[in-house]
Design brief:
The protein has 482 residues and is of the alpha/beta class. 35% of the residues lie in helices and 22% in strands. The chain has two domains: 319 residues, Zn peptidases (Aminopeptidase, 3-Layer(aba) Sandwich); 150 residues, Glucose Oxidase, domain 1 (3-Layer(bba) Sandwich). A hairpin with a 3-residue loop joins β2 and β3. Bound molecules: zinc ion (ZN).
Length: 482
C-alpha cells in the first residue's frame, strides 16, 4: 500500500478506537436491557420488548434499513417442576425443567453416567439395556477431567440417554454455588422433547451421586409446561458502503443473539454480545458520519432471536437472505463476548485456517495483538452461516482466561440464575466493543483478503475434520435445511 493509504487507514482506526474507548455506552445499555425487560426467553414479552428497544437504538444511532423480520414457531413456557427423592430418604431437591421438556411425571431409579460421553454410556451398559426405564444423570460440562477428552454438547448427552431407553435425564452443573443449570433440549421450536430433562445444581448432583454409590436411589420428577404458538423477530440494520467503493455490494456481518434463558436476564449470555454489537454499530456509524461516507463494504449489524432453543433466528436469517450469502465477506459472531477482564478478547475462527496469520498480523499492526484460534463449533449463530460456506468467527476469550475464568468451567454463570448484571465488567465490555469495532473496520476496508467461501463438499470436510459430521447426520442436521 502507498504511504498515504496506510496513513489514512491508521487515522481511521484511531478515530474508531478513540470513539469506542471514550464511551461507557455498552455497560449503560446492558443495564437498561437487563433492568427493563427481565429475561428475554424466545417468544416471551421480554424478548419482544428488547426487540423494540434495539430498533429504537439503531434508528437513534443513524443506521439505515432498520428491520425486524418475524417468524412463528412452537414456543415453550415453563410451568412448575419438582424433583423428589423417595429412597434412601425423603427430600425435595432443587431442579429446573430444561426448555422443551415435556410435561409429565416419572418415578424411577437413578443411574449416574459420569460425564455422559459415549464411553461413559458404554461403561454404564447402555447398549445392554442397563439404563432402560431409568433416570439417567450426567455432568453438564466435560471440563477439567483429562485433557483431550471429547466434550459433547448437552443435546448429544441427552440423546444418548434417549437412545438408551431412559425415562428421564438429569444434567448437573459442574460449578459449585447452588446454581441449577439450564439449556434447550432437542425439539426447540417444534414441540416436546422425547423425554423429560432437568438441570440440577452441582451440590444436588454430588449428593445424588454419593447416595447412589451406597444404595438404591429412587426419584420422582414432575413437570408442567405449555407449548403455545409464538412469534420472534430478528433485528438488523446497515451502515451502507461508500457508494464510490468498487466493493460496495459486499457485506461484513456482525452480531449475536439477544434472547436469553428464562431464569435470569442473561447479562453475559447474551446481553453482553448484544450491547457490544450495538456499540460497534454506534461507533462505526458515528465515524462514517464524520467522514461523510461509509466504508469500502456494507456493514450489517444483526440481533438474532430464539438462539437458546436451537439457533432458530439465525437459521431463519440465512434462509431469507440466502441469495446474499455469497457477498458476505465475513460473519463475526458475538456471543458471551466481553467476559472476564479487559484484554481477554480472542478471535475464534470457525475452520478458516487462512485467516489465522491474517488476523494475527492485522491486530499486531493495530498495536493490540489479539489471540487468534481456529475451532469449528456448532453451538451459536455463526453456525448457519458456516454451514452455508461463509467464513465466520467470533469474539471469545483467550485460552488462559477461559480456563481460569473466575475458577468456573464451561459457561460459568451462563445458563444459570446467576447470569445477572453484577457479573458484567464495564471495562471488559468497553474493551471488547473496541476490538470488535476495529476488527469490523479492518475487515470492511481491507483490500487483501485471503479467505474464501466453502462449497458444500468443503463444509462437509470441515465438519468431518472437526469430528462433528456423524452426529449432525444422525440428528438430521446435515445436509443443512434449505
Ligand atoms: Zn449465547
Amino acid at each position: 500500500m502507498a504511504t498515504a493509504t496506510v496513513d489514512a487507514a491508521r487515522a481511521l482506526d484511531k478515530a474508531v478506537s478513540g470513539e469506542a474507548m471514550g464511551s461507557q455506552a455498552a455497560y449503560a445499555t446492558l443495564r437498561d436491557l437487563c433492568d427493563t425487560f427481565g429475561h428475554r426467553f424466545a417468544g416471551s414479552p421480554g424478548e419482544r420488548g428488547a426487540a423494540t428497544f434495539l430498533l429504537e437504538r439503531l434508528r437513534a444511532y443513524g443506521l439505515e434499513g432498520v428491520t425486524a423480520e418475524s417468524f412463528r414457531y412452537t414456543g415453550w413456557v415453563r410451568g412448575s417442576e419438582s424433583l423428589d427423592v423417595l429412597e434412601p430418604l425423603h427430600v425435595r431437591m432443587r431442579a429446573l425443567a430444561l426448555p422443551y421438556c415435556p410435561a409429565g411425571e416419572v418415578e424411577a431409579e437413578l443411574r449416574w453416567v459420569g460425564d455422559g460421553e459415549a464411553d461413559d454410556y458404554a461403561a454404564a451398559g447402555a447398549a445392554q439395556g442397563a439404563l432402560r426405564g431409568a433416570i439417567v444423570m450426567s455432568a453438564a460440562e466435560t471440563a477439567g477431567r483429562g485433557a483431550g477428552r471429547a466434550s459433547s454438547h448437552r443435546r448429544e448427552k441427552y440423546m444418548r440417554a434417549v437412545t438408551a431407553g431412559a425415562a428421564a435425564y438429569l444434567y448437573v452443573n459442574q460449578n459449585p454455588g447452588d446454581m441449577p443449570v439450564t439449556g434447550g433440549l432437542p425439539g426447540g421450536g417444534k414441540g416436546p422433547a422425547p423425554i423429560p430433562g432437568l438441570g440440577l445444581t452441582f451440590e444436588t448432583g454430588e449428593q445424588l451421586r454419593r447416595w447412589q454409590e451406597r444404595s438404591t436411589v429412587r426419584l420422582r420428577l414432575s413437570v408442567t409446561a405449555s407449548f403455545p404458538e409464538v412469534e420472534s423477530s430478528n433485528i438488523y440494520a446497515d451502515l451502507p458502503a461508500d457508494s464510490a467503493s468498487p466493493s460496495a455490494q459486499e457485506l461484513v456481518v456482525a452480531g449475536g443473539h439477544y434472547d436469553s434463558h428464562d431464569i435470569s436476564p442473561g447479562a453475559l449470555d447474551n446481553g453482553a454480545g448484544t450491547v457490544i454489537t450495538l456499540e460497534a454499530a454506534r461507533v462505526l456509524a458515528s465515524i462514517a458520519r464524520e467522514r461523510g461516507r461509509g466504508f469500502a463494504r456494507r456493514l450489517r449489524f444483526c440481533f438474532f432471536a430464539a438462539e437458546e432453543i436451537g439457533l432458530l433466528g439465525s437459521w431463519e436469517y440465512v434462509r431469507r437472505h440466502r441469495e446474499e450469502l455469497d457477498r458476505v465477506r465475513f460473519m463475526l459472531n458475538l456471543d458471551t463476548s466481553g467476559r472476564g477482564f479487559p484484554g481477554n478478547e480472542a478471535l475464534v475462527l470457525t475452520g478458516i485456517p487462512e485467516l489465522l496469520p491474517y488476523y494475527a498480523g492485522a491486530t499486531e499492526q493495530m498495536g493490540y495483538p489479539v489471540e487468534v484460534r481456529n475451532r469449528f463449533s456448532s453451538a451459536s449463530d455463526h453456525f448457519p452461516f458456516a454451514m452455508n460456506g461463509v467464513p465466520t468467527g467470533g469474539i471469545g476469550q483467550t485460552q488462559l482466561a477461559a480456563s481460569a475464568l473466575n475458577g468456573l468451567v464451561g459457561r460459568g454463570w451462563g445458563h444459570t440464575p446467576a447470569d445477572t448484571l453484577d457479573k458484567a465488567n464495564p471495562k471488559s465490555l468497553q474493551s471488547a466493543a473496541t476490538v470488535t469495532a476495529r476488527l469490523l473496520l479492518h475487515t470492511a476496508q481491507a483490500e487483501d483478503w485471503p479467505a474464501h467461501h466453502r462449497a458444500p463438499e468443503q463444509v462437509e470436510q470441515q465438519l468431518a475434520d472437526a469430528g462433528m459430521l456423524e452426529a449432525l447426520k444422525l440428528s438430521g442436521r446435515w445436509p443443512p435445511p434449505r
